[in-house]
Amino acid sequence: MLSNEDAREILPIGPPLYDPDFFTDRTDRFCASELIRETLFEKLGKELPYCCEVRIESFDESKRNFDDDNNHDGNDETKRRKSMIRIDATIIVERESQKGIVVGKGGKQIKDVGMDARKKLQKLFGAKIFLELRVKVDKNWRNNADKLKQYGYM
Question: At what angle do helices 108-125 and 28-44 cross, to 10 degrees?
Answer without folding.
Answer: 140
